[in-house]
Amino acid sequence: MEKSDIEKIEEIIKTRKKAHSWYSGKSEVYKSFVDMEQKTYVDGKISKLQKEYIAIGISVVINCESCMEWHIKQALEGGATEDEIIESIEVGIEMGGGPATASARFAMNVLEYYGR
Questions:
Q1: Nearest-angstrom CA–CA distance, 17 and 34
Q2: CATH 1.20.1290.10 is the classification of domain 43-116
Q3: Rounded distance between C-alpha atoms, residue 78 and residue 86, angstroms
């Protein structure tokens, strides 16, 4: 890995921590977002780790470098292997290259079709 890549990742981490501290003291909307995030990434019908895999793929599709850094770190801390994270990234690659206009209505129809 090149030094510039390491520096970029470390700057993302530093800036995220600074922004978190700053917004936590000034923004109710930000605090609500953090609360929602904490409630989202818990074990439920799908595990916290599975949710991190989903977030990694989405992060790749939307090209959110800060998101990639955070969710890959969270997945690793949750026990993910490198191969599992690579598969999550591959899903993002496929989805970003595939039909980006896939409709949530179609997903709803499929779920209804199978009686879920």
A1: 13
A2: yes
A3: 15
